[in-house]
Design a protein that fits this description.
The chain is an alpha/beta fold and about 325 residues long. The chain has a single domain, classed as NADP-dependent oxidoreductase domain (TIM Barrel, Alpha-Beta Barrel), CATH 3.20.20. The chain contains ten helices and ten strands. The chain has an eight-stranded parallel β-barrel with strand order 3-4-5-6-7-8-9-10, surrounded by four helices. α1 links the parallel β3 and β4. It is globular and about 50 Å long. Pfam families: Aldo_ket_red (PF00248).
Length: about 325
């Protein structure tokens, strides 16, 4: 995981490991589990750890990182740690305090990457999902360019080595890129991406702007009932996916995945997520095999523009990103 060809150079000169460990878990999973699996992920070889204020696990993830530093397994500079600005903190005066709060929880001096988690702004406050008396989300209207300027100040202050966005469409990226007085470009855009939803147009756009695409739900999704249609097809049960795996991996049912290999061929950063101990170890083995051109063609043919996370509750917000084609 430490060799140079397994990292991508970002447009600000920093390097991001190609394979990352995503720490999100559904609410029913005890937060203490995040400590256990993050330590395991680091022991297995992951050096890119992805968290967020929304995940409500930054204390546990930070403790896992610090414990592996303390026992000599890694140094702080070996770890690429990502956190994210939640939607209730988009107002520019709230951005730095939000990042400082995340750093305090993780007990780290800086994050390697700080992302705007979503372009949709929500009412400021302690509630992650503020709702009215009818249970409808309460939106906020914020100029994302002012949010980005506050993100730039966090980078200049050394609180974040790199800054980027998540769940932005190409038009919203253009808005940031065309902002008068832009000081730092987004280094990446973290979006849903997998063989059923290959994001080819957004990938091409990002490449043209020297922005890295970071893929979440690269294995399909965790099928959280709050957000994912339970009738949607399960990527890891797709016959093409299963048949493309090396024979010795086919019985494991949750492979490190050709999705990862196919994405890495496109220089996409992959976030893999598993709270299963054995699978976390298997996931790191993604670089131990390569797909043939025939395999790649078969996987490309799986694309069906299937987005698992439509975030329909956000659809009436003017910055809802999924109305655009890409």
């Amino acid at each position: 995981m430490d060799s140079k060809h397994q990292r991508v150079k970002l447009n600000d000169g920093h390097f991001m490991p190609v394979l990352g460990f995503g720490t999100y878990a559904p609410p029913e999973v005890p937060r203490s589990k995040a400590l256990e699996v993050t330590k395991l992920a680091i022991e297995a070889g992951f050096r890119h750890i992805d968290s967020a204020h929304l995940y409500n696990n930054e204390e546990q993830v930070g403790l896992a990182i610090r414990s592996k530093i303390a026992d000599g397994s890694v140094k702080r500079e070996d770890i690429f740690y990502t956190s994210k600005l939640w939607s209730t903190f988009h107002r520019p005066e709230l951005v730095r305090p939000a990042l400082e709060n995340s750093l305090k929880k993780a007990q780290l001096d800086y994050v390697d990457l700080y992302l705007i988690h979503s372009p949709v702004s929500l009412k400021p406050g302690e509630e992650l999902s503020p709702t009215d008396e009818n249970g409808k989300l309460i939106f906020d209207i914020v100029d994302l360019c002012t949010t980005w300027e506050a993100m730039e100040k966090c980078k200049d202050a050394g609180l974040a080595k790199s800054i980027g966005v998540s769940n932005f469409n190409h038009r919203q990226l253009e808005m940031i890129l065309n902002k008068p007085g832009l000081k730092h470009k987004p280094v990446c855009n973290q979006v849903e991406c997998h063989p059923y939803f290959n994001q080819s147009k957004l990938l091409d756009f990002c490449k043209s702007k020297d922005i890295v695409l970071v893929a979440y739900s690269a294995l399909g999704s965790q099928r959280d009932k709050r957000w994912v249609d339970q009738n949607s097809p399960v990527l890891l049960e797709d016959p093409v996916v299963c048949s493309t795996l090396p024979r010795e991996m086919q019985h494991r049912r949750e492979p490190p995945l050709l999705a990862s290999s196919s994405c890495s061929e496109e220089t996409i950063i992959i976030l893999l997520n598993s709270y299963n101990q054995a699978i976390s170890v298997y996931n790191i083995q993604v670089f131990e095999f390569q797909l043939t051109s025939e395999d790649m063609k078969a996987i490309d043919g799986l694309n069906r523009n299937l987005r698992y996370f439509n975030s329909d509750s956000l659809a009436s917000h003017p910055n809802y990103p999924y109305s655009d084609e890409y």
